[in-house]
Amino acid sequence: MTPTTPRDDEPSSPRSPVVMRDVAKAAGVSVATVSHVVNDNPRARIGQAARERVRRAIEELGYRPNALAKTLVTGSSSFIGLVADAIATTPFAGQIIQGAQDEAWKHGYVLLVANTGGNEAAEEQAIAMMLEHKVRGILYSTWFHRAVTPPAALAETDAVLVGCYSEDSSLQAVVPDEVQGGRTATQLLLDAGHRRIAFINTSHPSPAQTGRLEGYRELLERAGVGYDPALVVEATSDQEGGYEAAMRVLEHDVTAVFCHNDRVAMGLYDAARDRSLRVPDDLAVVGFDDQEVISAHLRPPLTTVALPHYDLGAAGVRLLLGIDEPTAGTARLVACPPVVRSSV
């Protein structure tokens, strides 16, 4: 039978993967020596010339070390886990993930993300799989700032809470500085000359509810304006709640309103328009969250205070890796920056 030569347009057979034995043969060393070089074993007594031959053979042959085997040798991997309840379905998800991913990559790690949808069984399974893969640690995140009971399995590795915290401070945490955010929003209105400033707060108990109110009250008192509880109205934190609360707030002859979030501010815009009030000429408005699909597209564009999602993700990784020092007994606070547009 005469052998045939494959034509150029015929697919070539897949090349067998390069294994450690191939590297050892090319470098003229033992497989054990290749293993020590690949795993950077500091106790192995290997001459510099042999190390260079192994590294050169690895590069020339295109050898890829077995990540799982290396994990078994070193006891850890180059992965950091991120487990979240519903973060991947929220408008801010990409920012937290991007911040954590960028910071992890900067230090030689890759982020593994699991979105559990708030399902406890899925959460347990995700954490278990990450532990099996010897992740360097796990970030545990929630889609809004609140207290949580951390899953017990997090005690088996280094872990940091992102955007949430435990009541007993059993785990390190990074959270938005809600009080500072409330001060920043109020300062924007004070700086514009306003003194009759209302606050539409959420009716849902949360660190955001109490923290933003505290910052608002603190700034008014510091500025000598004084705090008037009649100018604080609670509402559901959506457009309809903002509209209904605005009708009550506007009865108090205010010139500016700080809204708990951008959706509430959208409802306020609707109410102002129905009363023939112009923003910002007749009424200045500041929101919170910087939910860009809302704030940047209102007319006029909404001045707001951003939740620092990207910075939360990055800060969580730095805390996990020990790059940032932990804050004893309390969560690390991440500042909420102002985003100035045209509503003040």
UniProtKB/TrEMBL annotation:
Residues 18-74 form the HTH lacI-type domain. GO terms for molecular function: DNA-binding transcription factor activity; transcription cis-regulatory region binding. It comes from Nocardioides eburneiflavus. Keywords: DNA-binding, Repressor, Transcription, Transcription regulation. CDD domains: HTH_LacI (cd01392), PBP1_sucrose_transcription_regulator (cd06288). SUPFAM superfamilies: lambda repressor-like DNA-binding domains, Periplasmic binding protein-like I. The keyword Repressor applies. Pfam families: LacI (PF00356), Peripla_BP_3 (PF13377). This is LacI family DNA-binding transcriptional regulator.
